[in-house]
Amino acid sequence: MTQPTVSGQTVMRHPLRRALHLAAAGMPVLPLRRGKAPFGNCHNCAGNTCGGRPNMKSAGPCRCPGVCHAWAAATTDACVLTSPAWMAAWLRAACVAYHPGAAGLTVLDLDDAEAVAWARTALPPTRTVETTRGEHWIYRGAMPSHNAVRPGVDIKSTMSYARYLGPGTGTLTSLPDAVRALAVKEPSPIRPAPHGLTVPAAAGQAQCPHRTPAFLERGIAMAEQRITEARSAVHATVYRTFLAVLSTHGRCGCLTDTHVARLFAAAQGKGETLRHCTDAWTNALTRLGL
């Protein structure tokens, strides 16, 4: 194989030789610098302005000619790997990484002895690779990546990268449901709203002066619906909804603990914590001077 050169000098970098070997076997690879970190955006693509992978949400290869988009830059193309822009990175590279998901693999990163001991009793055996502090368990099959699915355990597959530490030992087996289940987040328990979050009635106003009790009930129901139907920006939606309810009913004293609990329950049903709900409610009160 012809040895790549930079500025007329023959390059015998071990990371590059390993990367080319892996790429030839169909493994999308990329260089890592010291600290096991990928190379950052190049000057021309700072903040992913080149449009290659906005917000890192897409799973395809990066369009940038340089190695600057982490996992999205991983490639099996030897011409790309030995291009001048990439060679500049290989000269500074400390090791090789690969994109497991693009190779149809999932890596269970077990970060300590306790995590390894758990895997040996809870999961079917597969190919394993020793790491500095634990092991990588590699399964055939891709899935979304998740960090901290349990103490000392990360899942690296799509839209992630894993350091290549050798071929490992054991037979590669299919991704089990037990690993997929680790990524399923259990819904948080619904906790009641804390007492003391209602707004006291102004002097001489014991009832809602706006229209009828049905007006308040309809307002609370609409607020619950707005939170429940939120598809994005849940934090902001919860705050704006609390603000709207308080701006209408916050000065007349008609809101009760039951009403507040209904709003909190709707927010917690969308994944908000009790603390987030309390903070949003308090911030809305402050915004309105209540």
Provide a quick synopsis of the model:
This protein is α+β, with helices and mostly antiparallel strands and 290 residues long. It has helices at 14-24, 78-81, 84-90, 113-122, 177-182, 213-228, 234-249, 257-269, 274-288, and strands at 5-6, 9-10, 29-33, 37-38, 95-98, 105-110, 127-130, 135-140, 146-150, 153-156, 162-163, 173-174. β7 and β8 (135-140) form a beta hairpin.
Describe the structure.
The structure is a single chain. Helix content is 34%, strand content 15%. It is an alpha+beta fold. Strands 6, 7, 8, 9, 10 and 12 form a six-stranded mixed sheet that branches. It has a four-stranded antiparallel sheet with strand order 4-3-5-11, covered by helices on one side. Strand 1 and strand 2 form a beta hairpin.
What is the ordering of alpha helices and beta strands?
Answer: EEHEEHHEEHEEEEEEHHHHH
Computed Rg: 27 Å
- Termini separation (Å)? 75 Å
Question: What level of helicity do the residues show?
Answer: 25-40%
The 3D shape can be described as: elongated
Largest beta sheet, briefly?
Answer: 6 strands, mixed
What's the tally of helices? Answer: 9
Query: Which structural category do the helix and sheet elements fall into?
Result: alpha+beta
Content of β-strand: 15-25%
Average per-residue pLDDT, rounded, comes to: 80
**Would you count the extended β strands for me?**
12
Regions with little confidence, pLDDT below 50 for 5+ residues: 1-13, 51-59
